[in-house]
Amino acid sequence: MSNIIDNLDNIKNIYFIGIGGSGMFPLASILHSKGFNVSGSDNYESDTLEKVRKLGIKVFNQHKGENTIGSDLIVYSAAIKDSNPEIIYARDHGIPTIERSTMLGIIVDKYKNSIAIAGTHGKTTTTSMLTHILINSEKDPSAVIGGTLPSIGSNGCVGESDIMVCEACEYVDSFLKLHPRISIIQNVEPDHLDYFKSFDNIKKSFNRFASQTKDIVIVNGDDKMALESINGTEVNKITYGILEKNDFSARNIVLNDWQFASFDLFKGEELICKINLSIPGKHNIYNAVAAAVAAYQLGVSENDIANALHSFSGVHRRFEILYNQNNIVVADDFAHHPTEISNTINTAMKMGFKRVWAIFQPHTFSRTFMFLDDFAKALSMADRVIVSEILPVREINTYNIYAEDLVAKIPNGIYLKTFEEITDYIIKNVSQGDLVLTMGGGNIYKCANSIVEKLKK
Asked: Cα–Cα distance between 12 and 96 in angstroms, integer?
């Protein structure tokens, strides 16, 4: 039975529980395009679910066991519990079930030129950049992205070529389901310690991921731990970064007032092309070079790489400008790890604003507890800081940690529990020349949207 599932042999009818999820939709789309009879269910209406319906995929609005009758295979997201009625029905009636990451691995194996992007930070932006380059150079890729790429209006696409690009998340070792031809490892830092328990375990997991790569690992040669994580692996390695020791390097870097970088991309001592980015931050140089190197390995021309990276305008929730009127700017960012927050605020502080307001929603009790001092240090770079209630996600507060504990370590910080309180406070205190920057991996974007709505009145 396992071999049949692994190869999708004799599988025709595939059912997705939570088909409107951002991680599920691209997989359902790809399988639908390959001729599988795809259907699914979702309790929540969304723009993504409307896209599912437009493909002609049948969608049920409630989770009911009988919805799955006739299915050969059921795919469920990590958010689906064992108590879900469709899961219970499937297991009671012998219908095979697999988790989303397993299906992603099966799909990736179907593509000759598969590229998986891993790392503690920058996965979504780099996956989006590479997808954008490949689309604009008419390579017609398929892609699964962890965020919405504005140029395609989606977090995935279905192409006709043998190229597949996907984000490879390390949480709960999901990326170990992948065996790509090419992998990118951008950086390796402590994170998800609720699962990994130690940094050594994280490095071991990345080492296994690198070992599973079939051809080439493209690794950040400036990141000591990324290099260390691939020690002992026999796969071909290409290094990149801003240091000239790397196989590919960004040199002659210049950042303008909005912190958009221009640089020369070198292969060894050979100038490949000049790249002018249209998104802010020095950290995006690394993302761009990683994407450029992968595209180069796939035969994309130097001009196409440079032109596509210049036209790349970013990803949803990655320093996304939501409002820019009356000399007040509101932006939203997915940053939820101290390094990401530091990069984002550091970029913002160099952009010439009178004041930078950092509004942060802590994401999980475990991460807040384990990185408390690092969060405080990163957030303290901003002129003014507001911290909301911690978003529990999948956890209960066994750590006895509270948002007030973080605020106590930030000299310029205050705690406001709700988005409504934060919105009112900002509206009363923001002034011309300010940047209001919301950050977090949860639903803090709703607070940003609320602030924008009030500013427009």
From this structure: 13
Instruction: Tell me if 116 sits within 8 A of 186, measured CB to CB.
Output: no
> CB-based contacts of 2: which residues, under 8 Å, 6+ apart?
none
Q: How far apart are CA 330 and CA 324, in angstroms?
A: 7
Token pair listed for 234: 């026999």
The half-sphere exposure of 181 on its side-chain side, counting CA atoms within 13 A, is: 16
Is the Cβ–Cβ distance between 132 and 149 less than 8 Å? yes
In terms of domains, do 411 and 359 share one? yes
Model-wide pTM > 0.85: yes
246: containing domain: 111-311
Q: Which domain CATH number covers 434?
A: 3.90.190.20
Same domain, 202 and 286: yes
- What is the tens place of the pLDDT at every residue in 270-315? 999 999 999 999 999 999 999 999 999 999 999 999 999 999 998 8
Strand 260-267 and strand 13-17: the pairing is: unpaired
How wide is the angle at C-alpha 420 spanned by C-alphas 419 and 424, nearest 5°? 115
In angstroms, how far is CA 325 from the centroid of its own chain?
29
Q: What residue spans of 16-84 are helical by DSSP H? A: 25-33, 47-54
* Residue 105 maps to a domain: no
**What stretch of H or E contains 449?**
helix 445-456
pLDDT tens per residue, range 392-448: 987 999 999 999 999 999 999 999 999 999 999 999 999 999 999 999 988 999 999
Residues 241 and 200 in one domain: yes
Burial category of 193 from C-beta neighbours within 10 Å (exposed 0-12, middle 13-18, buried 19 and up): middle
Please name every residue paired with 92 in a beta bridge, in sequence order, or none if there are none: none
Query: Phi and psi of 329, rounded to 5°?
Result: -120, 135
Cα 322 from Cα 455, distance rounded (Å): 11
Could you tell me if 185 and 300 lie in one domain? yes
Could you tell me if 63 and 44 are in contact, meaning their C-beta atoms sit under 8 angstroms apart? no
> Which tokens go with 139?
């390579």
